[in-house]
Write a structure and sequence with these properties.
Strand content: under 5%
Order of helices and strands: HHHHHHEEHH
Structural class: mainly alpha
Helix content: over 70%
Distance between the termini: 34 Å
Strand order of the largest sheet: 1-2
Number of strands: 2
Radius of gyration: 34 Å
Number of helices: 8
């Protein structure tokens, strides 16, 4: 096309010196403009390709982070329900004043345990630092921000409310008052050894403050499991959305 334009320009310009100069100048300007536009278009193509590759890499890392979070949330939900189950047994023993037997020591110890969860957000922080506009899908971008800022933020806030405030002020003092820990081996909790031996079993049965505390703790464990299960489902949903989106690359 450019060669054709040059030939036409030369043919017309040969008929008159002034026209020759004008057409030559206009032709040169046209060629420069076309060259600039082509260079800009190529640069845009290259930048789009770089941005797309960056987006793909960041979202793949995000899927990995979310998969880790989903596993941790699932384990934490199971831990919450195990503790709640032990608390149900303890409450039944206390309310019906059942005799003590060694198998109860596990449940007394487990009743004091709260399943914690640590969520990873390194990929989310990387996307935030790069700029969320790197994600081309508006819906996907909104879903990612909502999960990390809103859902995970709410989970952390509820954990603080349900556990961090209640446990040191109420649960821990009563636990220290009524129980003797079997031993302080650092592998106890990892191996499921929660045994706590009552110091005075009859005093424990009569302590209404402990009875009320352990019932509250059971309610907190069920609430914790409910919240974590909801966040787990939303985490899995986002993983599915991301995998579907990444399949288009």
């Amino acid at each position: 096309m450019l060669r054709l334009f040059r030939n036409i320009r030369r043919t017309v310009s040969d008929s008159d010196p002034l026209r020759k100069y004008l057409f030559y100048a206009i032709g040169e300007i046209f060629l420069v403009v076309v060259g600039i536009l082509l260079a800009l278009q190529i640069n845009n193509w290259n930048q789009d390709r770089i941005n797309k590759n960056t987006e793909k890499k960041l979202l793949e890392e995000l899927v990995e982070n979310l998969s880790v979070n989903a596993q941790r949330l699932e384990e934490s939900v199971k831990g919450e329900l195990k503790t709640a189950s032990s608390i149900e047994i303890v409450v039944d023993v206390l309310e019906n004043k059942k005799p003590h037997h060694d198998s109860l020591n596990y449940h007394f110890g487990r009743a004091d345990f709260a399943a914690d969860v640590v969520l990873t957000n390194t990929a989310f922080q990387a996307i935030s630092s790069r700029g969320f506009e790197i994600i081309r899908s508006d819906d996907l971008r909104k879903a990612i921000i909502d999960l990390f800022d809103t859902e995970y933020g709410f989970l952390i806030a509820m954990t603080i409310r349900l556990e961090d405030q209640f446990w040191p002020s109420s649960a821990l003092p009563l636990f220290h008052k009524h129980f003797r820990i079997k031993n302080m081996n650092k592998h106890n909790l990892k191996n499921g050894d929660f045994d706590a031996i009552p110091v005075d079993y009859n005093a424990l049965l009569r302590d209404d403050e402990y009875h009320n505390m352990i019932k509250h703790r059971g309610a907190f464990r069920y609430e914790g499991a409910k919240i974590k299960r909801e966040v787990l489902n939303k985490t899995r949903l986002l993983i599915n959305l991301l995998e579907e989106y990444l399949s288009t690359f």
